[in-house]
Design goal:
By secondary structure, the chain is an all-alpha fold. The protein is about 60% helix and about 0% strand. It is flat. The chain starts with about 20 loop residues before the first helix and ends in a 7-residue tail after the last helix. About 0% of the residues are buried.
């Protein structure tokens, strides 16, 4: 078996600047409830790919969808509450 090696320099050299900043980590943490709700919805939908949906499955998908909507609302309200109104600036 032949191993193929790149003959060119690395396109993006590794540096310490590739780590997320504290602000980026805070933004991720602020949206973590939304991410988890979307994962839960995705799990519910994936479970239905190989079998017909029962009444229980329909409820599970609806509840997961409602959690996503609630998480999106919370994130939007949190972002809207932290922005400075244009008239005040």
């Amino acid at each position: 078996m032949k191993f193929i090696a790149a003959l060119q320099d690395v396109v993006t050299p590794w540096s310490d600047g590739l780590e997320p900043s504290d602000a980026e980590l805070d933004a991720i943490e602020a949206e973590m409830d939304l991410v988890l709700a979307e994962v839960e919805l995705l799990d519910a939908v994936i479970a239905l790919l190989d079998r017909p949906a029962s009444e229980f499955d329909g409820r599970r998908v609806r509840r997961a969808h409602n959690r996503v909507l609630a998480a999106r609302r919370d994130v939007a309200n949190r972002v809207a509450g932290t922005q400075v109104p244009r008239d005040a600036a």
